[in-house]
Amino acid sequence: MDWVIGGEPQVGQGWRMLMECLAAGRAISLPALGSAMQQTALFVSNGYGRIREQFGLPVGKFHAVAGLVARYVGQLYASDAARRFTACALDAGERPSVASAILKVQLTEAGRRAVNHGMDILGGKGIISGPSNLLGVAYRQAPIAITVEGANILTRALIVFGQGAVRCHPHVLDEMAAVQANDETALGKALMTHGGHVARNLWHSLFGAPVLGRPPEALAPEARLIARMSAKYALTADLAMGMLGGKLKRMELLSARLGDVLAHLYLASACVWRYGVEAAPQMLPFAQAAIRVQLDQAAAILHDLYADLPTPGRRFIGALVLRRTAHLAPLRDVQLLALAETLRTRPTWSSGWCPISANPRPAACAT
Prior knowledge:
By secondary structure, this protein is mainly alpha-helical. It contains 14 helices and two strands, in the order H-H-E-E-H-H-H-H-H-H-H-H-H-H-H-H. It has helices at about 15-25, 30-50, 65-90, 95-120, 135-145, 150-165, 170-180, 185-205, 220-245, 245-250, 250-280, 285-310, 315-320, 335-345, and strands spanning about 55, 55-60. The chain is globular, with a radius of gyration of 22 Å. The model is unreliable at about 345-355 and about 355-360 (pLDDT under 50).
């Protein structure tokens, strides 16, 4: 019996122990691998684009290649910001199970996309086996990160929103506890406060939401956009749970979309935190681009979600909740090309590592 981890008292507690370990481990190793894969793809693609010439020009100057490299930069800034932010939560003793699931899915998928696009840029070098294929090892390893510690299809469809809808909601747990205890008074109080929560989010969705804390002044507009989109998301989550009830758990495509919006908001918020901690003005264009991409993706997913809700009036409700989101446009071509040019021409950044700070753990981690 002493072979059992924790001894005989821990017999039967294996699943709980596994979940607690995953809450921490899933936030460290696989997000670090996903971020490293993105960094490697950026390093290789940017460097190869500077030395490989076609038609008398470096291939990195062709817009199709430059656009891909620029997208690496925005996604990498957000990925590494979320990785560091969650690591700081672990340092503080938290067990962020929902955040770790978000990181596992988003960063490993981003790593796979970055390596795939990098193989496109390498062209013929991407289909050979050996040291001349600088992304070959990463390409072969990408499916491992996607699959282990909970396959992404499972984590995205069931865990992120499935756990987050209850554990992160300010009132649902109180309502469930009141029902379990058959306490009508507590249930009525929880329902009233929940109704006020929905009403506030409706107001904030339509007329603007307050920003909690003090974001960096340079990113104050982006912080306001994140707050407003968060209110729209919170209202949407309550509407989905209220209209669909327990069926929402079985409607995995809708649950996955709700989890994806939460993930993009989490990454965007981490970008604000990272820029404030690093206090590096030269990184402002990358931080702004990263936040803009995350918010654009969140808005697009919400539009799709309302279009697929199996309830009457979904289009009217979606138009009401998502009004005044047209400004959340994706990065334009001119902005993508400017980011790629900055990365390619600045001497200290030409190696491709600029969106990753040399300091792996910010000194202000406990802030």
